Structure formats: structure tokens, C-alpha cells
Amino acid sequence: MPTPARTPATTRPTAHENLPLFTLDTDGRAQPTDKALPTHEDLFALDGPELTALLDSLTTAQRDQLAGPYPARWLYPPKPGDAPRGVSVCAGCGGGCAGLRLVLGVETDTVCIELRKDPAATSTAAGCTVIRQDIKTLDPRHPTLRFTRRVTCTMPCTDWTRAGLGAGRDATNLQILLDAIDQVGAHLGNVWVDGSEVCTHDDPGDCDEDCDDHMIEPSGAPIAELWALVDDMTAETAGLMLAPVIWILGLRSIGAPLQHIVIEQSSALPDDVQEYIQTELWTAGCESVQWQDLDAADFGSASNRNRAIMSAHWYGRPGPVTVPGIRTNAALALGWPPDTRINTRGERKTSGGNVFALDRTITAVTGKIRGWYCQETGRRFTIPEVCALVGLPGDYPVTGSRTSQCQQLGDIFSPLVSAAVWGTLLGLPWLDMLRTYLARIHPSVHGRPDPAAILSNPHRARPTLPVTEAAIQRLFAAGDYPRFRTGPHLPAH
To answer: What is the CA radius of gyration of the chain?
Structure first.
């Protein structure tokens, strides 16, 4: 791995160390204060009760200033029982978080970062804490983020796909990205030096085979310098694949106790990019890193969405996600006639056709669904129906114009796949929970799934019972399948 040009060695960025001092008087006007505001470096030097005492001595406005743009409560160490803190990069309309909250029922404390107005508003309305800002302007080496345990990255993928003409796969663009991943790893200290003696070199370039085993010191390069490594790419969204490396390694460089990482990206993401990211995580000490191609249609979505998913566990080996093969008929899920045919392109004739049958799991939903209509009646899909097609409840608070809403739902990280991935990482009986959720949003399809499949499911939290008629009768005795799925025991006789 190449070694970057060195700046004065430091383990912290300098961009935020000298902050203006102010407080608010009773009528809200900014006034100077005599109390010195601690620097970010001061915060990094403290932990536990000492950090808490320092923060308590500040005004609310001072804590907000130190934390900005992140929530000030994240300056404090987490308390026992607090939900794990997570960051969702390029979060879109919140599909990844919906998988955790709506499907798995997992309490989260996640900050979602999203630049676009409408997806940010949708995530906020859905209950996320959202920072609307360009990811390239935010530095993960911020003291507010030092207790982060989870990272999700769902960057836009246009330049990897046919829709973006595959610009990210151009040999020159691809090489720039791969070199940038190497350079960011070096800047953030993710280079292992093998040796046999104690190393005293300030510059890793001076190290040789006699130096003791160690990781190199981070360069302290500002965030703009790291992102400048992909400035020469002519495929902007492909360059955003640098974000997982910057955020994961940046958080590690400040001692964040990362446990779980999820990346969702186009299935057209080149193997080389997957392998470079995987190598960086292994070098950083991650125990388990794996990529899988997962299609939401195999997890109960009424529409296809095939994506490359990376799941990583820092301290365990949960194994790959099991694909359950749950299928959802779109016509039944929506309550449309089974012989409905959907026109996607009007009278245009294309090699792929312009009409498909709704009586199956349908083709991938894109922003163009805004113009799809029933061939016989001209009826178009409502936004709640589009939500249902991608695995969301019909009342999910999608914000913006119809065009914007359809685009957000077409770009979504499937909450069904998110639930399977996170459920596997967290060791939860996610398949039970997924079936419960599907029974709730698509009761006409999944309200009464095959009882033998339920009872023999290897992901069940409680011991599997023999699949007998008596067991089946107990299963449905209460007449309320979703309640049974979330309960600790089978219903009594």
C-alpha cells in the first residue's frame, strides 16, 4: 500500500480545534463569554465522569456548538441500557432504518446523513435524526462520534448501472477509486508494518524489516484532502464509494467501538471495489467481512431489487444471510385483479417490451413508476401502493412531489433486506420477525403462512416443536398470527 505525503503527525484533525466562544443571554442574542470553550482535542483527552463533568459545566449553546452538526447528547458517553449509536451515510428516505425499527423492532440511536431535501424530510418524518449536508463536508473524526458502534452506507449507484452508462466501470475511473481507497487507508493509519524490533521512526517511510509490528500513525489530513483523491473521476456517484472507507477507518482512528457495518450498493459494483473495501476492514482487525448479492424479491418484496450487500461484524462471525425465498404476488398484495397488465412506456415499442403482468413479483420499481398505468383502465399506482410494492407500510410518510416520492421509493434500501442483514448481524430471529411484518403489510398474501414452515424455521428464538397437527392447532389457537410471532411462547391450549 502506498504511503501518502506526510503532514505533521497527529491523531486528530485540526479543522475544528479552535471554535468561537459565545453564549446566549435571556433574549437570545449572542454574547461573549469569559469561560473558555474546550477544544475538540480537550474532549478527546477525557472520558467517563471527567468528560461528563466538563460538558455539564458548559451552557446548552456551547454544547451545541461543540457538537455541531451532530446532536449534543452524543458528546456524552453512553449510559448502560442506551441504544447503540449509529451513523447512516447517504441514508435516502430511511429504508435501512425502517428495517431495524419497523421489521425487527430494534431501538436505534442513529444519525442519518442525506443531502437531498425530500429524502431528508421523509427520513425525519419517519422518526430519524437527520443531518442534511454533503457527506464530503463532514469529518468522521469528530469527538461527538467517538462512541459510534454501527455504520450503514447506502451511496447513490447510478454510475455503476446501465442507467449511468457504467461510467464508474471505466478503467481510468476505476483505477482512480482503487488508488484513493489505498491512500485513504494510509492517511487514516490503516497500514500494518511487520518487524522484529521496537520502531522509533516518525515517518513510516523510514521503517524497515527490523521495526516492531505496528500500525502507522494517521496523517491528520483534512477531510477535503481525502475526498480530493477522487476529484479526477468523471463518474461522481462512483466516487462516493470512498465514503465507507473514510467513515469506517475515520471512526476507528478516534477509537470508536465499531461492531457492525452494512454497505448497500448496486449489484453491478465491480469485484475489485468490493475486495479493496474488504481488505481495508480486515487490515483494521474486523473479524468477519462478506459481500452477497441479495434480491428483495426473495425476502417478500412484491418487486425485485437486486443489490450487493456487505455485512461486517468486528468481533464475531455470524455467517452469510440465509435467503428464505419468500415470494409476494403484487396483484394480491395490492388487491388488484390478478389479470391486470401494467404499461410502463405508453405506445413506445422497446426490445424489453412495455407491458407486464401484475400477477407475480414484478420488475424492479424505479422513479419511472410515476408514469406506469393499468393497460385496461389507465389507473396509476398511488404512493401507498408504491410503498407496498417495495416493502413499506402504506402510511410511510414519503415527502415531496409525486415524481420525488416515486424516485425515493425506487432508490430505497429495501427494509426487508435490511432486516435480514441486521438480524443476522445482531443474532435475532429475523425470519420470524420478517414474516410477522409481511403478515401485517400484506395480510391477503402472508396473513396465514404455511404452519409447517413456521414451526420448522431454524431462526426461531424458541425451541422448534415437532410439526404435528396438535402443534399447528396451538399455533393458530389465538387467531392472531402476528401476535403469536412476537410472543415468547406458543399460545396455550
So the answer is: 25
